[in-house]
Amino acid sequence: MQRLVLASRARAFLLFHSRRMLDEVYSRLALTLPFPLLRQGDHPHRELLRRFRTEPAVLLGLKSFWEGVDIAGDALSLVVIDRLSFAMPDDPLHEARVTAMRARGEDWFGDFVLPQVVLQLRQGIERLLRTSQDRRVIAILDTRVLIRGYGRRIVDALPPARRTAQFEEVVRFFAPQEEILVPPAVPCFPGEDRLWLSRPSRGSSLPHRY
């Protein structure tokens, strides 16, 4: 995340699947990044967005934070998603449907859970890419997009964008005429003026279920 934020010169949303991970990354980045850090919960939602729009900053929030968010223009250049969430929502109807599909021997994950995850991800990204003039990198830092068979379904469902496996391309995307000192060689896998990438993160604890 630090490399990506340095390349984008802030103007970044960092979205997390848990509060614990959000706070841990916030504590680490606060020691190293030369940009203001805004953390969900420290200020009202409207105040965080106001400050983000008026100064180059890095906003850290839970994935629910981007619901209803509309950031136009150059104020937002980078969106990082630490991990896709396959956890079942606290919804009896959802749980009942999964139980019924299991009982019938149906593919409850591929036919029900995964399409919901893909839809939520696509809708969230489309809210942040309102026009063809929005130039942004979307980074999905979840190894399952690389190593699980359903990863291709997730990537293919995203809006059209150029994909890259080279971190140097991300640097050039943000500053094609300038040289930026950013640590190189981040292994990537993604997704014309928009760029998807997905990168494995060391030490990430991933459930064996999916």
TrEMBL record:
The name this protein goes by in its record: ATP-dependent helicase C-terminal domain-containing protein
One family name in Pfam for this protein: Helicase_C_2
Domain (ATP-dependent helicase C-terminal) ranges: 19-147
Source superkingdom: Bacteria
One GO MF term attached to the UniProt entry: nucleic acid binding
One GO BP: nucleobase-containing compound metabolic process
